[in-house]
Amino acid sequence: KQEVTQIPAALSVPEGENLVLNCSFTDSAIYNLQWFRQDPGKGLTSLLLIQSSQREQTSGRLNASLDKSSGRSTLYIAASQPGDSATYLCAVEVASGTYKYIFGTGTRLKVLA
Amino acid sequence: SAVISQKPSRDICQRGTSLTIQCQVDSQVTMMFWYRQQPGQSLTLIATANQGSEATYESGFVIDKFPISRPNLTFSTLTVSNMSPEDSSIYLCSGGTGPQETQYFGPGTRLLVL
Predict the structure, then answer these.
(1) Mind telling me how many Å the CA of B18 is from chain A's nearest CA?
(2) How far is residue A7's CA from residue B54's CA, in Å, rounded to a whole number?
(3) Is A95 part of the contact surface with chain B (CB cutoff 8 Å)?
(4) B60-82 confidence digits (pLDDT tens)
(5) Is the CB of A91 less than 8 angstroms away from the CB of B103?
(6) pLDDT tens, A52-76?
(7) Residues in contact with B32: Cβ distance below 8 Å, sequence separation at least 6, in sequence order
């Protein structure tokens, strides 16, 4: 059974810091991994999608890497800003009867001005 | 990309009643899913909504409690039946054009059962 874990559970950093969020999964048989952002009281916004054949994806100040064999992904946020404060979720897509996403436990990020 | 809307955005319901949540996508999507997010928790998949056929439920979720409809490629409903306070959660729908494609999420429906 696929399990997805995120470390740390919560993080508080001063503005301007570079930071790394970690995601690990127990079964390497995934189709892709997606990072999402969830603001309080809101739905999810997709940040980056990494296909299983890819090693990393970049969008602006965000860079996500994927190491399928070790069951790990990292989300790197450069020069953090207060507007980055949110919960970050990773999810892996698996095929088990039907294609579906298994979500991680989330990292609550607070960037202090 | 796809824009997904949900109705209602929030509701307060009495124990024993039922609530139907609607999910509308602005373009045709192959896959639609319903998730539950309990307070302080991550997302748990309830079921895959299949167009024109019965939904595929995950372990721990049953059709009698969470009946789902999907009459076409842009619309789905989730009903939370015979509610109890334990059903208080955020319910989110998502859609995508297929496996290995970006998943888009609705804003969620915040349900409080008294």
Answers:
(1) 23
(2) 37
(3) yes
(4) 999 999 999 999 999 999 999 99
(5) yes
(6) 899 999 999 999 999 999 999 999 9
(7) B23, B25, B48, B49, B51, B70, B76, B93, B94, B95
